[in-house]
Design goal:
four-stranded antiparallel sheet; mainly beta; elongated
Length: about 290
């Protein structure tokens, strides 16, 4: 009888331990991420995931991405009730230091749960809300800020001159909070900004390379003065590139961000005051998530 009682006691203890272990495991659940196309944000910014639970954002954790696009973390342990109740996953860009506890305005990817998984895209309503498939653009080479017929191939203006008069050259959607457009030229492999903007029919925020005269009321820049390291102004732009990027606010880098919906190779024989078109470059990050 004693042996039987000892067996029952040991069995009861083992069962209690097992039940406790099961209860502990049942309080958490894993969220897995598989994302491609992200870039290294440098030392001042990180990516942070969020699940939307009954309208509120709950952080899933932060991660960085190396120069090869590899995520530092792909699995995140979360409260099981929160994760099971989540409707949407959102990826943001956050400051490393001095960040608010909630998500920033810079939503780069998002997707809804369908069962226990979902797809991440930039065009989800909780991200940028557009896939830019209807975007297009035009540009000319000219240097209006130093007068006529002076170094005309040293400036780029994102406008359309095909009618004989300057007109809007960019067809781009309005961006949500946390994002703005930026124009660029790439010459000798070096990207140089022409300015940031949110309105395609107004001046941008930069004229630090221009001459002393006014330019047209469209995004663009003359590259005549104050050349950055590695370049000499004025510079011949044919053979380079013209680029429109989408930049986070605040901006994480002086270089173009990974979202570049419009890109053009400037013809080597390009002539000034001629309208050239830009091509779409819709190579955006994508991913999946599972719970």
């Amino acid at each position: 009888m004693t042996r039987i009682l000892k067996f029952i006691a040991l069995f009861s203890i083992a069962l209690m331990v097992s039940n406790c272990s099961d209860d502990d495991e049942a309080t958490t659940k894993n969220l897995g991420l598989n994302i491609s196309g992200l870039e290294n944000l440098g030392s001042d910014y990180v990516y942070e995931g969020w699940i939307i639970v009954e309208g509120s954002a709950v952080t899933t954790g932060r991660f960085s991405v190396n120069d090869n696009g590899v995520l530092s973390e792909t699995n995140f342990i979360l409260d099981i009730d929160d994760l099971n109740a989540a409707s949407t996953f959102v990826l943001t860009i956050e400051k490393v230091v001095g960040d608010d506890p909630g998500p920033s305005d810079v939503h780069i990817l998002a997707g809804d749960f369908s069962g226990n998984s979902g797809n991440l895209t930039i065009d989800h309503g909780a991200a940028l809300g557009n896939n830019f498939s209807t975007s297009d653009g035009n540009y000319i080479l000219a240097t209006p800020t130093n007068g006529d017929n002076n170094d005309e191939n040293s400036g780029v203006w994102f406008l359309d001159l095909s009618s004989g008069s300057p007109a809007v050259g960019l067809n781009l959607p309005i961006l949500p909070a946390g994002w703005q457009y930026e124009g660029w030229v790439v010459t000798g492999g070096i990207p140089v900004t022409s300015g940031k903007f949110t309105n395609v029919s107004g001046v941008d925020d930069f004229n630090g390379f221009s001459g002393t005269m006014g330019g047209p009321p469209f995004p663009g820049e003359d590259f005549l003065n104050n050349a950055p390291s590695g370049l000499t102004f004025p510079i011949n732009l044919p053979g380079g590139k013209a680029v429109i990027s989408i930049e986070p606010v605040p901006d994480n880098s002086p270089n173009p961000f990974l979202l570049k919906p419009l890109v053009a190779d400037i013809p080597a024989n390009a002539t000034d005051h001629t309208t050239y078109s830009m091509g779409q470059n819709l190579n955006f990050p994508t991913g999946t998530f599972t719970r």
